Structure formats: C-alpha cells, structure tokens
Amino acid sequence: MDTPVITTTALTKRYGSHPALTDATLDLPAGRIVGLVGPNGAGKSTLLALAAGLIRPTSGTIEVLGNRPAADAAQLARVGFVAQDTPVYTQLTVADHLTLGEKLNPRWDRRTAADRIRQIGLDPAKKAGRLSGGQKAQLALTLAAAKRPDLLIFDEPVAALDPLARRAFLQSLMEFVADLDVAVVLSSHLIADVERVCDHLVILAESRVQVAGDIDDLTADHYRVVGPRGTLDTLPAGVEPIAADHTPRQSTLIVHNTTGRPLDLPGAETIGLEDMVLTYLHRAEGLGTPILQETRS
C-alpha cells in the first residue's frame, strides 16, 4: 500500500482563541486528486498552509510525503503549492517566470514548461500583470507542475475565474496529473468542480473534518431514508443519522451507512455528492436539515 501523501493526527491550529483547524486526523491517499470542500473559514486554507510548511500547528502532527512539511530543500522540491490568488510577479514576463523557476527548482522540467506555455498560447514576452485571470492561473499551474513535484497543492485556484477559464484550468490540471503521475490536493467551495476532477473527498466545516473518503464510496454509503413518523427512531448498528426532517406523518433521514453492506431499509436510496456535502455543512453550522433534492413529501 502506498504511503499517504499527507497524514495528520489531531492536527490543530488556533489564532489566539479562534480555532482555524481542530483535531484533524486524516490519511490522504497517494495517486489521487483529493478535494477539500467547505465554506469560507472552514479550515481548508489552514490545512493546505500547514501542509506546505507556511505555518506551524498549535498541536497535533502532520507529515507530507513521509516527512515534516518544508523540512529541507529536498522536501520543498517535492511539493508544488499554488496559493488562493494564483500569485505571479506582475512586472516579470512569462519567460522571466520560467527562468526564475528553473533557477529556484532543482528538478525543473524545461521542456514541460515551454511546451505548456506554447500549448496554452501565452506570449513569453508579455508581462504577467497584463495577463487575464485565467492566463495567470495557467501560468501558476505551469510553474508548479514544471517543478516535477510529487504533490501539487492548490488553494481555491479557480474561485475568481469565469466558467470557461475555470474549465480550461481544470482540464490542464487533469492533463498534468496524467502526464506527470503526481498527487493533487485541491480546495474548493464549488462542488461541481470537485465532482468533475477529484476521486477522494474531505468535507470541512466549522474548523473540523466532517467526513473523508473516496467519492464513490461516500456517495454509495450515504442514503436518504423516508418512512412513516416513528418508524425510523431506531436504526441498525453501523448506520449513523446525519440529518433528520419530520412532519406529523413522515420522517426523512440522511444516514451514513458504515456497515460495508447495502442499506436494507424500506424507502432507502443513495444521494448525490451535492446533497451529501450540503447535509454535512448544515449539520456543522447548526442549520438543521437542508432542502434536499428528491425529498418526498
């Protein structure tokens, strides 16, 4: 079994009395595109900054590729990080960025960088400050991938992009993953984008991990169960209620089935990724049961 790319145990980060991340215990698998989903302030950026070695935990532990984050130059070379605003140097040209990347990164892949710049149609002589948001994101992605890292970390890379630029960026990301055999951790609040490119999911809310696992497994293990009021008060062992909505005549539950077997309850049906994510977010924020698609009256 491959070593997880990121392993955390009770990982906690606080700023004064404010909890940014609380007791996060995770094993993010190698060879995957891992999506971190949650609202603003959920802890996504904090977790990624801890993984990149930009900040230190208040308590708990984190290992990235089997080592302490940013432990040394060799460790830094194995991780590519693109921050939320896809930072580039506005006064440097595209070509200047590639030259700087080659000087700073011992594993720099000149051909990958040059080929990618040509494929996406960036003018090497153009200053980065004159690029569109989508072009800046593509340049940042190229710089991160040309490091030839073992892990790429992206913090909300498409949040500010229009739909076409967002689609182009995600397509480029999937191409890099296929070509370079690199693991990716990607944070986003756009569930559709995560569903399109990711195969492993972590849901964060209120600074805590709500659930984590392979997307196919998670969607197969979460059910909507509808029955007459009172018939769902007791659930089988291994079936955890996540949310409930009751009318005088009917109960609707969202449950997580951890038994490893299909849920054998009348009125049970699996739910989609969006419904599952929204259910956990509403529960964490104390908002009760969301209005779920396909809920029967």
Automatic annotation (TrEMBL):
The keyword Nucleotide-binding applies. InterPro entries: AAA+_ATPase, ABC_transporter-like_ATP-bd, ABC_Transporter_VariousFunc, P-loop_NTPase. Gene3D superfamilies: P-loop containing nucleotide triphosphate hydrolases. One of its GO terms (molecular function) is ATP binding. Residues 6-231 form the ABC transporter domain. Keywords: ATP-binding, Nucleotide-binding, Transport. It holds the Pfam family ABC_tran. This is ABC transporter ATP-binding protein. It comes from Glycomyces endophyticus.
